[in-house]
Fold this sequence. Notes:
By secondary structure, the chain is an alpha/beta fold. 37% of the residues lie in helices and 19% in strands.
Amino acid sequence: MTHVFHRHLRSTPPVADSAAGMRIRDADGRSYLDASGGAAVSALGHAHPDVLAAMHAQIDRLSYAHTGFFTTEVAEQLAHELMRSAPAGMSHAYFVSGGSEAVEAALKMARQYFVEIGQPQRTHFIARRQSYHGNTLGALAVGGNAWRRAPFAPLLVPATHVAPCYPYREQRADEAPAQYALRLAAELEAAILAQGADRVIAFVAETVGGATAGVLTPVADYFRAVRAVCDKYGVLLILDEVMCGMGRTGTLHASEQEGVVPDLLTIAKGLGGGYQPVGAVLAQGKIVDAMSQGSGFFQHGHTYLGHPVACAAALAVQKVIQRDELLPKVRADGEAFGAMLQQALGDHPRVGDIRGRGFFWGVELVADRGSKRPFPAALKLHAAIKKDAMARGLLCYPMGGTVNGVDGDHVLLAPPFIASRDDLQEITRLLSASI
Ligand code: PMP
């Protein structure tokens, strides 16, 4: 009997025992090809020697120092590296231990910013349906799945939700992408005005949607239109790139492809590539300056902030990505991966849409392609695919979600950046067999 509190209480998963490169091995000796990097975490695959060496060196030198007393050389180096490549105007990185913590810190940073500049009446967040921002209470409140929030209502953070950018389901047939972008921006504006033009703290969105929607790539101009609405009302733009960031879509930050600069940017998963739990909020100088010149103190913090070994792992991961020129590789091989998926699954009667960028792809499953009718949620198709794929030795990331009240099944693919074209072919072959 297990004493680990597993999330699914009526079944115990296989025991992961060891891993190297693209593969994880379980205690029964079965080998799995990692097509999802866990949940879009692994960038360099498993047991990368440079990352292990950097972590060992850091553990030997200094394994822990509380940020209430010290900074560390490695945290300073990582922040320096992140600022070197950050969107314009960013000045600081606030380190945390994961994605939910990053979102939670960003929400509080945004709120405190307005308190510091004398606008404490701004208390409301606007986010999007069909989004995922984490499971802590603040992140859950801005998350877009009503069924995830429902058991914990009333939530502590006031938030309303507008439509995501979801062309496959929500762009009208007679609507050009630019018109669709403007329609969504108008909905955001209406939501801001419904709260009161000076009551909203921030609009929170994943730059490329992930965990609940099988990858949602925005149409061109969407984020520019959204940024313009935010600017009109002094509302901050918080982009959550916990899943889609740090190279996953072929550029370091996904927002680079949208031509917008966020006020706060959350990163995690790929930052440490799974070697350590680590995340960060990258913050615009104006926000840090307001706090610095105001109370001089961010009213937030955790015991493991800026953990030296986590920072060493993240720094090593980011150095390897640069040294081995993995971002151009992700762009080129990502395009090839998309073509492989299209060729194998594009005509499949149960595949409605295949979309993605870089090494971040989603396959949306439908019961009927013409009407785009999803499979009934009760069927739990995504769970069946996950199980079947694992039996074939493939780790992919299927999930079921709710699209404006319509349930749907998606498979998310997010292989480590080191995946070869042969690996991508094998992933495509195994997934097609499962579907
Ligand atoms: N934001 C996004 C966009 C995510 O995809 C996730 C995790 N799937 C989170 C936040 C939460 O991250 P974590 O699970 O590390 O707390």
